Amino acid sequence: MTACHFIRNFFWPFALACGLTLHAQSLEVPFLAGHVNDNAHLLSASTLNALEVLLQTHEDSTSNQVVVLTIPSLQGEILEEYSIKVVETWKLGQKENDNGVLLLIARDDRQVRIEVGDGLEGDLPDITCGQIIRNEIVPRFRDGDYEAGIRDGVAAILAAINGSYTAAATKGNEPDFMFRLLFFGIFIFVVGIFTVIALSLQGAISWIMYAFLTPFWATFPMISLGVKIGGILLAIYLLGFPTLKLWFAKSNKGKALTEKWAKKWQVASAGAKSKSGRSSRRGGGFASSGWSWSSGGSSSGGGFSGGGGSFSGGGASGSW
Fold first, then answer.
1. CB 86 within 8 Å of CB 100
2. DSSP H helical ranges for the chain
3. Of 4-18, 126-140, 149-163, 230-244, minimum mean pLDDT range
């Protein structure tokens, strides 16, 4: 048997089979479960939830879709190639705006990348992404503080999109402080509204909401502002709520204010029901334009998805 026959009949099929096997064993893109996908288990539950709330709020107000992915290892993949594979699979951002961003961390390979959608490259150019990685993320990772690195990186990315990021201004602990302050503002806005509603309600439902909101007042202020300040705010809530309820019940001004609030909730509720009725009569359920794609082709499980955004390799990479 000649060498040509051997290559054609034996070696080439064998090499092809090996190549197909290696391709089949390439690192798969995980399911897109939310804004924060911590597959390497680098974040505590409280930090993960706080980041999820922050990024969801940012998306609701701007439509930009910033997503974090941590993985244990690249398993031999090239960081930049795998990052592109992830964003092409997840299709982050809106199709018409291409406004998605991926922060990818490969723990065991000690590599990190920020991948930027075409529509945000003006706000997040390569040089800015490199500064965020070098100044905000890598120093924390080298100290073994992955949570701080991810928090500071996310805060810097959002600041850059908003036009307020400068490398010199965000060194040290300032991004962490900015993140905590922003998180506390979101908490006050959301939980504060429910607290006011609970105060305006009458009967047992008011006290049920008081008990329901207590764990939120006990947890989130301490996470964002520290144990001391968080404890003070918790004490104010625990004592202030019953005190205000008593004032509402006994004073004329309190009664008038309660009635005023109650009427506002009734009007708002009636308006919401009216809009809901008109929407249902038109035969339309809720549908967000361009947001029907689900990662991995799965139509079950999870309500989070990308929207068809495009990426052309903009961003930066780093290691620690």
1. no
2. 3-6, 12-24, 45-62, 79-90, 126-132, 138-142, 146-161, 174-200, 204-225, 227-250, 252-281
3. 4-18
Burial class (CB in 10 A: 0-12, 13-18, 19+), 54: buried
- Please state the φ and ψ torsions of residue 151, each to the nearest 5 degrees: -60, -50
Nearest-CA neighbor of 206 among 253, 263, 258?
258
The phi-psi region of residue 201 (left if phi > 0; otherwise alpha if psi is between -120 and 50; otherwise beta) is beta
Give residue 146's pLDDT band: very low, low, confident or very high (50, 70, 90): very high
What confidence tens digit (pLDDT) does each residue in 156-193 have?
999 889 887 776 544 444 556 667 777 788 888 888 88
Angstrom distance (rounded) from CA 309 to CA 306: 7
In angstroms, rounded to a whole number, what is the distance separating the alpha carbons of residues 218 and 304? 29
